[in-house]
Design brief:
5-stranded parallel sheet, alpha/beta, 11% strand, 34% helix
Length: 273
């Protein structure tokens, strides 16, 4: 290829490999990701090198096995200075590189690991998303956890604020903003890191109310988990969060279409541990 392709790497959190409607999932609705599948390649036997968040992300960044990069669990505060990262290699080849969304979850926390710029969409009040939410949401909303649903909580509630304030929507809009403002004289490498479908389970209310989710969650869970009927609502919220993460109307597929994919670039979607 004589012209260097534009690249978008999409990372979702805690999304199982079979959680796609194109894979026959009986509940989830994922039309944007299904479009990527229809116009590209789906690797049905592609496995994470480590089913834990921080080591898996370090592997994505470096291309190394956990035994090589040295992180085997979610160990906070362990600083890392890799010899090279994917973003660094692409930047050295003339790419404009940007990370948007949930943090890389590495230390030092402010390190960019080869990216020109990083926009942290984490739930921390001091992140770029947290500061933006504080500036745009009602003063008494309580921030990202204002509904009382915590980061690793299995409580399920609808997102209490307008949908545009949701973390998923923020990540999409910041990605589109980058595409509008990027340097047109060079190729780009954009990483969109979605917190969804990781808890908190607080998708916007319309996604919780989808008829297919209401019916599908009941029939799907009754068939597999007869003894855990009390968990049906939470499972439905998880499915709804996955549908919203497809995401938010224009969503990931919208980001891809804005940059002319598939004609002008490469797009990869990876479901993280």
């Amino acid at each position: 290829m004589s012209q260097k392709p534009n690249i978008i790497l999409i990372i979702t959190e805690q999304q199982r490999g079979d959680c796609l409607s194109s894979d026959g999932h009986p509940v989830l609705l994922t039309p944007n990701m299904d479009e990527i599948v229809a116009n590209g390649a789906r690797f049905s036997r592609c496995y994470s090198d480590c089913p834990i968040c921080m080591p898996a992300r370090r592997t994505i960044l470096s291309g190394q096995f956990p035994a090589t990069h040295g992180l085997l669990s979610n160990k906070e505060g362990l600083e890392w200075q890799p010899a090279a990262t994917m973003a660094q290699v692409l930047r050295d080849q003339g790419y404009q590189t940007r990370w948007i969304g949930r943090s890389m979850h590495q230390y030092p926390q402010q390190a960019r690991f080869g990216y020109d710029e990083v926009e942290n969409g984490g739930s921390d009040p001091d992140s770029e998303y947290g500061s933006w939410l504080k500036a745009n949401a009602p003063n008494d909303c309580g921030g990202w956890h204002g509904a009382g649903v915590m980061h690793n909580d299995w409580t399920a509630r609808p997102w209490p604020l307008p949908e545009y304030l949701h973390n998923t929507n923020w990540t999409v809009e910041r990605g589109l903003r980058f595409l509008r403002r990027r340097d047109p004289t060079c190729p780009f490498f954009l990483t969109l890191s979605f917190l969804a479908a990781h808890p908190p389970l607080q998708p916007p209310a319309p996604y919780l109310g989808l008829r297919r989710l209401r019916a599908g969650a009941v029939s799907f869970e009754r068939a597999r988990f007869q003894r855990y009927q009390a968990a049906l609502g939470n499972r439905r919220a998880g499915d709804a969060r996955g549908c919203h993460a497809d995401p938010a109307g224009s969503g990931r597929g919208g980001c891809a279409r804005k940059c002319g994919w598939p004609q002008s670039g490469a797009l990869a979607a990876r479901r993280n541990a």
